[in-house]
Design goal:
The chain is α/β, with parallel strands linked by helices and about 500 residues long. The protein has two domains: about 230 residues, P-loop containing nucleotide triphosphate hydrolases (Rossmann fold); about 240 residues, 3-Layer(aba) Sandwich (Rossmann fold), CATH 3.40.50. About 35% of the residues lie in helices and about 25% in strands. The chain has 18 helices and 19 strands. The strands form four sheets. A six-stranded mixed beta sheet has the order 5-6-7-3-8-9. It has a six-stranded mixed beta sheet with strand order 15-16-17-12-18-19, sandwiched between helices. A hairpin with a 7-residue loop joins strand 10 and strand 11. Helix 3 packs parallel to helix 6, helix 14 crosses helix 15 and helix 15 packs across helix 16. The radius of gyration is 23 Å and the shape is globular.
Length: about 500
Amino acid sequence: MSGDFLLELRDFGLRRAGVESLRQINLTIRRGESLAVVGRSGAGKSSLLRAIGGLLDADESPMGGLSRTGGAAPWREIGFVFQEPRAALDPLWRAGDLVAEPLRALGVPTAEHERRVLRALFDAGLPEPERMARSLPHQLSGGERQRVLLAVALVRRPALLLLDEPSSALDHAAAARLYDDLERLRHAEGLAWIAASHERLAAERAQRVLQLEGGSLVASRDSGEFLADLDNPLVRAFSPAPRRARGARMGELVLEATDLHLVRGDGRARKRHVLRGASLALRAGRATAVVGASGAGKTSLLRLLLALEAPSAGVVHYRDEAGTRLPWSDMDERARRPLRQRFGAVFQDPRGSLDPRRSVRESLVEPLRVLGGFARAAADERALLLLEEVGLDASFLARLPARMSGGERARVALCRALALDPRVLVLDEPTASFDPILRAEFARLLGELVERRGLALLFVAHDRALVEMLADEVLELAGGRLRAADQDSGSP
């Protein structure tokens, strides 16, 4: 492999437990080149990145030829930005320490760590790098966590950067800035990057596009040529669906938030006003979307609505089946606990919400038995029905989270949220791991669930197409307040 070549695959394949997950992949990457890897969920995109980065599991066996920069120690020359950043970041380490850890492994003098860390955070597009360096992962938004992972990869100054769904937790403007930053580094420093993504933006910004289906290479073309092929179902699915009629469903009021305020501070920095008087009302049989820039406070709002955190001011009221108005956010947790079954939630990073040691059956059966009082046989039957309701078959009952794609994990997490027949369903970036075709299927599924079960659905999304297909009402969170969003202005 010459000095300009960073990666070369020759008839490369990958076998897991005797089953081929990749086959006959041919690819070369030179310094300063960019590539988007696209395809359906489970097509092998993440497996390809892991193989390139030398991160294969013990039961995976490569086949064919693979030459890459870094040789036997690819981590010295290859940076990796993982999917589902909450699972990839240690919750007890501050962001600055996480970014500095690769420097210790490389033997960089301690005196240089702070400068290199702050520069990496800045290069990753994070404002206020000093504050970010002091923050713990749970204090950051999903988009900020993803940027921290990018800083961890960039601090080593890699020649090749691998990114798995890098914009899944970012709004469109923030995603565009991320690719702007990657392109700046590509032109200024010769950084090569490969992004596995379900987003059209990745295909637009990369020089070339590689499409996988079922582990096989079905297209390898220049970006413009790939996106012009409207006979390709994946290319057609990149375009947002037509806007659905809104406002038709108006059921009974289930959850109401009034003038919510949330103030945060870490004791050393000035206090931050995350919410400044946010109000909303959720009704049965109605889907409400909350959109806004990364870091606007959308996930914090969800936590207040679920009473996982108390507002600094304001109140959330829940109306039970009898119509009784209860001060949900102000209740004692002992009084609130019996009502928690009426709330279902799926948070960002579904891998982090599923126990990696438990099968799908165990993850679904436990809440049914412990909280729902189901007998073993009835819980097993209910678990299977839940899987079928979200389009998964019985074979998933025995699977562990690591043996599923991001989209499959998200649907299992939805099953668990629906297990005890909630009245309120809250979803945080539910389609972040979905390919465009699966996104449309999932939107139809959620719409049917909202109507059939009479759910009051609230979902946070950067995905414009999902909002267009599913939402009856769209609210934008900006400046700590909620207002009706102007969809024509491209708010999501």
